[in-house]
Amino acid sequence: MNILFDTNVQLDVLLKRQPNYAAAVAVARASIRGQITGYIAAFSLTTIFYFGQRQYRTKFDNMQAAEYALDDVKSCLAQFRICPVSRQTLDAAVKMPGRDFEDNLQIACALAEGLDAIVTSNIKDFRGAGITLYTPTQLVKRLK
Predict the structure, then answer these.
(1) What is the pairing mode between strands 117-119 and 132-134?
(2) Per the count of CB atoms within 10 A, which of 2, 61, 107, 113 is most buried?
(3) Confidence at residue 108, expressed as pLDDT on a 0 to 100 scale
(4) What pLDDT was estimated at residue 133?
(5) How far apart are CA 77 and CA 36, in angstroms?
(6) Can you count the helices (H) and strands (E) in the chain?
(7) Could you give the C-alpha distances from 44 to 85, 91, 142, in angstroms and in order?
(8) What pLDDT is attached to residue 7?
(9) Contact of 120 with 6, CB cutoff 8 Å
(10) Which pLDDT score, from 0 to 100, does residue 60 have?
(11) Spatial strand order in the sheet of 117-119
(12) Is residue 37 very low, low, confident or very high in pLDDT (cuts 50, 70, 90)?
């Protein structure tokens, strides 16, 4: 099963955000084990870097924070396949009815790559996406 990981699921893992942390880690581990094939959208990496760096700055100086955030990006690059963002993908996202462009772009990336589903912590924002949706908890149950 080929699954796009919404940015918020990766942030739940990297930043240990509750209450979704345990389920998000379980889904990420399923990808690492090859039980599913995990994808992330290319543009998610900048968001992961930004929020990681912001979080690390609470404990480290700016240089160290940037290094740790870049390590998070490298981890994603090693663990996931990357969905590219093309002009066609952007055009498709702009035409979607949802009001959140970032979510629309996640959907457009998943559809362009022919993926089976999206795993997201905010499933309500993706309703009517034309693709199967799972929360991390739902996907964990599905994989058992």
Answers:
(1) parallel
(2) 107
(3) 97
(4) 96
(5) 16
(6) 7, 5
(7) 10, 18, 25
(8) 96
(9) yes
(10) 96
(11) 81-83, 37-41, 2-5, 117-119, 132-134
(12) very high
Q: Which residue ranges form the domains of the chain, and what is each CATH number?
A: 2-143 (3.40.50.1010)
Query: Could you tell me the sign of the dihedral formed by the alpha carbons of 32, 36, 37, 38, in that order?
Result: negative
Share of the chain above pLDDT 90, in %: 90
Query: Residue 128: its pLDDT value, please?
Result: 79
CA distance 107 to 72: 23
The alpha carbon torsion through 136, 93, 41, 82 (nearest 10 deg) reads 120
What is the pLDDT averaged over residues 10-30? 95
Residues 6+ apart with CB under 8 A from 83: 4, 39, 40, 41, 42, 109, 110, 112, 113, 115
DSSP element (H, E) containing 21 = helix 21-33
Confidence at 111, pLDDT banded by 50, 70, 90: very high
Reported as type and span, the H/E element at residue 50 is helix 44-56
